[in-house]
Design brief:
Number of strands: 8
Structural class: alpha/beta
Strand order of the largest sheet: 3-4-2-5-1-6-7-8
CATH architecture: 3-Layer(aba) Sandwich
Radius of gyration: 18 Å
CATH class: Alpha Beta
Strand content: 15-25%
CATH superfamily: P-loop containing nucleotide triphosphate hydrolases
Number of helices: 10
CATH topology: Rossmann fold
Largest sheet: 8 strands, mixed
Amino acid sequence: MKIAVSGKGGVGKTTFSSLFIRTMSDMGKHVLAIDADPDANLAAGLGIPDADKIVPISEMKDLIFERTGAKAGTIGGFFTLNPKVDDLPDSLSKKFENIKLMRLGGVKKGGAGCICPESTLLKALITHVVLARNEVVVMDMEAGIEHLGRGTAQSVDKLLVVVEPGRRSIDTAMNIKKLASEIRLDKVSIIGNKIRTSRDEKFLKSNMPDFEFLGFLRYDDALIEADLMGISPYDTETDIKTEIKEIIKRLWAE
């Protein structure tokens, strides 16, 4: 199973991803977790010790030079477009329970994009983990799908977009679906989050009639407290974990 998770900042995307990954791990699945959102910290959400000390791959200058033949931060020039990456998930990942986590980090870019060695390495790595790894892969993306190329996207089993009851969250989901369709990633489903009442659920369904809803997660103060205390949401007493299991069952059924 190869899953990408996206959504507007602040909707609870990383909280959902961490609950999803930890649940899969407890079910005995070996999970390769990819933190592809520069503004998130999936490691902390998973409860990995010393999460703040994990160096993003985009900042590993020696590695980038070794694999691409160019220094990080340079644009243009000559460098390898298909760097060796198959050994990185095992050699660079932080291991926790049945989980291996890799933090990609961000790429500083100007204008509309970046043809640079660090970006090339990250995209090659994503392509490898989606196409070649025989394990569950869960990618916590930023509010978009920047790291997915056309060939890679078609091998993703599902793009899960986390939304909360709100216009801006819905607008972001609409944009993500549009971007996904441009690279032929049509397997898009919605996770409704921070649901307070049945009215919130109806609001999302009525405003997103063309989307498949895979599940709804209620608003839970326990998750807010977990974040304030710096502990994984999975290590709190919350009924949301039961719904996460149901979402996983629906995905396996598909």
